[in-house]
């Protein structure tokens, strides 16, 4: 297939681009490089530096695209509470713009990076796709709005669409030839890469947001999914998309680890101390999130295999040291 990947310079987008190219697809990456450089865009993809708001210049009726994988967007839940307008613009307005451009160009297949943040404070654990969607941060709200728009688009205009609701994506794509694709956001806001920076001596302390959550050790619980497992689900979703249907799948490992357990894993893997500075809760953080991915496993035939927290942290550490 000829595929457009928005956000293909980012951690997940670049990893999926690598797998798509390896599977024989032709890929055009569109990224505005506002939060990344182009260093991780695979060299055998065509790269266009542009905002999603300008996607119509690339996604023309004559360009012959078979589908779009839409990764571009802002991902920091913390930032979405302090700068919500940035998230409504980059996630929702851009997402609606993409749907318009796809309709105009007659491109009928979409895989969308949705998020566990759509569920807010979970109505059930593990979270299934039937759980109530009531986001408690703006990030989740901006992504849920696009999910709802995609559902209408599929119904009315026969789009074949799959939303993949990611839990906490981590690790790195470590390839046999030594090539690696990993997480390097600017600014970095995610727990594991920040903890690695502390372990490497690049930061003094890990700011730990909250010790009074209703969890066994008082820190938040999250479900870490290895980026290579997550990426494989996108290739399966591409072939599972059906015209007129919007399918939604949760993608997680199914196990929750507390923030304190993550820091312990970083200490073990790196062999370095990770001093912690205890701070108040970060606004918009649910106490506990972990997935049931039973539906993705049944429908897509997807099975996450890299589920050990230490193995996930080890790949992230290998990338951190090699970058
Ligand atoms: N945390 C800290 N200190 C930090 C960074 C994070 O204590 O310096 C804590 C957070 O408060 C939270 C946990 O570590 O309790 C995980 O936070 P992240 O920022 O790493 O990730 P989030 O869970 O907020 O969000 C991530 C992705 C979203 C996705 C969500 C789904 O950024 O895109 O996982 O669970 F939707």
From TrEMBL:
<keyword id="KW-0520">NAD</keyword>
<comment type="similarity">
    <text>Belongs to the NAD(P)-dependent epimerase/dehydratase family.</text>
</comment>
<keyword id="KW-0413">Isomerase</keyword>
<protein>
    <recommendedName>
        <fullName>UDP-glucose 4-epimerase</fullName>
        <ecNumber>5.1.3.2</ecNumber>
    </recommendedName>
</protein>
<dbReference type="InterPro" id="IPR001509">
    <property type="entry name" value="Epimerase_deHydtase"/>
</dbReference>
<dbReference type="InterPro" id="IPR036291">
    <property type="entry name" value="NAD(P)-bd_dom_sf"/>
</dbReference>
<keyword id="KW-0119">Carbohydrate metabolism</keyword>
<dbReference type="InterPro" id="IPR005886">
    <property type="entry name" value="UDP_G4E"/>
</dbReference>
<comment type="pathway">
    <text>Carbohydrate metabolism; galactose metabolism.</text>
</comment>
<comment type="subunit">
    <text>Homodimer.</text>
</comment>
<dbReference type="GO" id="GO:0003978">
    <property type="term" value="F:UDP-glucose 4-epimerase activity"/>
</dbReference>
<dbReference type="Pfam" id="PF01370">
    <property type="entry name" value="Epimerase"/>
</dbReference>
<feature type="domain" description="NAD-dependent epimerase/dehydratase">
    <location>
        <begin position="4"/>
        <end position="252"/>
    </location>
</feature>
